[in-house]
Design goal:
By secondary structure, the protein is of the alpha/beta class. The chain folds into two domains: 2-163, HUPs (Rossmann fold, 3-Layer(aba) Sandwich), CATH 3.40.50.620; 186-309, Beta Barrel (Elongation Factor Tu (Ef-tu), domain 3). It has eleven helices and twelve strands. The chain has helices spanning 28-44, 57-61, 74-83, 96-99, 103-114, 136-146, 155-161, 165-173, 177-184, 200-203, 289-309; strands at 2-5, 16-20, 47-54, 88-93, 117-122, 149-152, 189-195, 209-213, 224-232, 235-244, 255-260, 271-281. The strands form two sheets. Strands 1-4-3-2-5-6 form a six-stranded parallel beta sheet, sandwiched between helices. Helix 6 (136-146) links the parallel strand 5 (117-122) and strand 6. The chain starts with a strand and ends with a helix. Catalyzes the phosphorylation of riboflavin to FMN followed by the adenylation of FMN to FAD. Pathway: Cofactor biosynthesis; FMN biosynthesis; FMN from riboflavin (ATP route): step 1/1; Cofactor biosynthesis; FAD biosynthesis; FAD from FMN: step 1/1. It holds the Pfam family FAD_syn. It is an enzyme of class 2 (transferase). It catalyses: FMN + ATP + H(+) = FAD + diphosphate; riboflavin + ATP = FMN + ADP + H(+).
Length: 312
């Protein structure tokens, strides 16, 4: 996949088959569009092009920008789009001035002049341009003038999947990891650096890796205990994760702490990726450390059984 970080370096292609959107999560609904994009490009002997935006448009134009958390970092999105077979990825810096482009300006300046679009494939009810004024019907009515075709993914195809980034965010915020993973078509992930914490876990037989997430805009699922897989240095380990404030030991800050099963390495300063497999229980306050340790032993048994039996 060729990546263009902005519009300056891209040259018009001879047969560009294009789609556009934020594609946060690259979920099953997005995958329907990407599959059709690739199919059309191959059938016409063209090259597939995806236009996306960074940062997320809502963080620039919306009043609730501070509350928006993303399902994928930019690096994660790039990797997923590459895996989906996209040949050209155009990442447009989303600014307030860019948000003021009319649909006509967007079509002529970007789709035509910069990319040389020959066919546009868009999802049902996709909108673009200032105030989301442009859409399928507008382009369809003017496609002979613009010199490219437009295809809209049928409503029934999109609604049959029944997935949206908003639904996935809502599921994760409730701890419904299994539902989120079904919508994503893969496990939800968090990637970060291992930092030193209070190291209390070592004293009670559950040493944990305390993660600092790389991107503060990344959505952290609901507080609680999870069964997870841990990708460290290309190897997959099993473990259990606690997200929360550790009320039993008077914690004051939210932490992301993973107990990696059958693992004994010093990994401070290194990167891990957590793959969420199942929500086990909410975070709770226990009546002292002995009660906490007893519960952690039960959590470990449940997590090991869940991961071993493939109940994810």
């Amino acid at each position: 996949m060729i990546i263009y970080r902005g519009l300056n370096d891209i040259q018009p292609l001879t047969n560009a088959v294009v789609t556009s959107g934020t594609f946060d999560g690259v979920h099953r609904g997005h995958q329907t569009i990407l599959a059709r994009l690739t199919e059309v490009a191959k059938a016409s002997g063209g090259e597939s092009v995806l236009i996306t935006y960074w940062p997320h448009p809502r963080t620039v134009v919306s009043n609730d920008s501070q509350n928006l958390k993303l399902l994928t970092t930019l690096d994660e999105k790039i990797e997923l789009l590459d895996q989906a077979g996209v040949e050209h990825l155009v990442i447009i810096p989303f600014t307030r001035s860019f948000s003021q482009l009319t649909s006509e300006e967007y079509i002529r300046q970007i789709l035509l002049e910069k990319i040389g679009t020959k066919k546009l494939v868009i999802g049902y009810d996709h909108r673009f341009g200032r105030d989301r004024e442009g859409g399928f019907e507008y382009i369809k009515a003017h496609q002979s003038e613009y010199g490219f075709e437009v295809e809209e993914i049928p409503r029934q195809d999109v609604e049959a999947v029944g997935v949206s980034s908003s639904k996935i965010r809502a599921a994760l915020n409730e701890g419904h990891v299994h539902t989120a993973n079904l919508f994503l078509g893969r496990a939800y992930t968090l990637t970060g650096t291992i930092v030193k914490g209070r190291q209390l876990g070592r004293t009670i037989g559950f040493p944990t890796a305390n993660m600092q997430v790389d991107d503060p805009a990344k959505l952290i699922p609901a507080n609680g205990v999870y069964a997870v897989e841990v990708d460290y240095a290309g190897q997959l380990h099993k473990g259990m994760l606690n997200i929360g404030f550790r009320p039993t030991v008077a914690g004051t800050n939210q932490t992301i702490e993973t107990y990696i099963f059958d693992f004994d390495k010093d990994i401070y300063g290194e990167h891990l990726t957590l793959k969420f497999r199942e929500f086990l229980r909410p975070e709770q306050k226990f009546d002292g450390l002995p009660a906490l340790v007893a519960q952690l032993k039960q959590d470990e048994e449940t997590a090991r059984a869940t991961l071993a039996n493939g109940q994810v």
